[in-house]
Amino acid sequence: MKTSCDFKKISPTRPDPHIIESAVECIRNDGIIAFPTTGLYGLGADALNRDAVERIFRIKRRPAHKPILVLVKAEADLSKIVGDVPPVASRLIKTFWPGGLTLIFNANNTLPEALTGGTGKIGVRMPVHPVARALVSGLNGMLTGTSANISGEPGCSDVSLLDARVTEQLDLILDAGPLSGGLGSTVVDVTTPKPVIIREGSIAKTRILSVIG
Q1: Continuous H helices in the chain
Q2: Are 141 and 115 a contacting pair, CB within 8 Å?
Q3: Phi, psi of 7 (to 5 degrees)
């Protein structure tokens, strides 16, 4: 088990490209990082790296049947991880991405099984936080976006409050200062003929329904 990790301060609005580059390099070398999203800190790893994904499950003590969210930099990246993007999903993407909307798709069978929790589905979001967006862009791939906490316990909006059981197993922490906390993303399942709102979060149900029709 790791006993310490690198710790770097980073601007939440103008992230230093050199810090982003070092974080991306860490991820490419099988590393796990803590990084800021809009409301809470997340755990980032290469979502297509089976060993890294399984390591996140161990760090979080997350049940194997619970999938992990993936962050992408553009709608075009969906072709690498999902089987189909229905028209209603494209409308939701054009309206709410980047932002607080997670869409659940049928996953490509090439994804690590741990990532989907064996469900055959994958949740995807395009982040809005400048640091998260820079990481996804620099990685030019898929970044995990699960919260930086022990499974079942509250998420963390300040790195000073991160659980030691998590931090001692990380390779890098990017500290962008206190985050807003609050509601998580709204989650919509688009794998069925009629999309299903699984969770109402930062985007109101009424706004989703106005796009779904």
Answers
A1: 17-28, 50-60, 87-96, 113-116, 130-139, 164-167, 205-212
A2: no
A3: -135, 125
Residue whose token pair is 């997350």: 62
Q: How far apart are CA 202 and CA 41, in angstroms?
A: 16
pLDDT tens readout for residues 152-175 = 999 999 999 999 999 999 999 999
Domain 6-212 has CATH 3.40.50.2000: no
Region of residue 135 (phi > 0: left; psi between -120 and 50: alpha; otherwise: beta): alpha
Beta carbons within 8 Å of 48's beta carbon, 6+ residues apart: 111, 112, 141, 142
pLDDT bucket at 110, cuts 50 / 70 / 90: confident
Give the residue among 78, 106, 111 at the shortest CA–CA distance from 93.
78
Question: Where in the chain are the domains?
Answer: 6-212
Look up residue 11 and give its DSSP letter: -
- Residue of 28, 65, 25, 66 lying closest to 47 (CA atoms): 28
**Helix (H) or strand (E) segment spanning residue 196:** strand 196-199
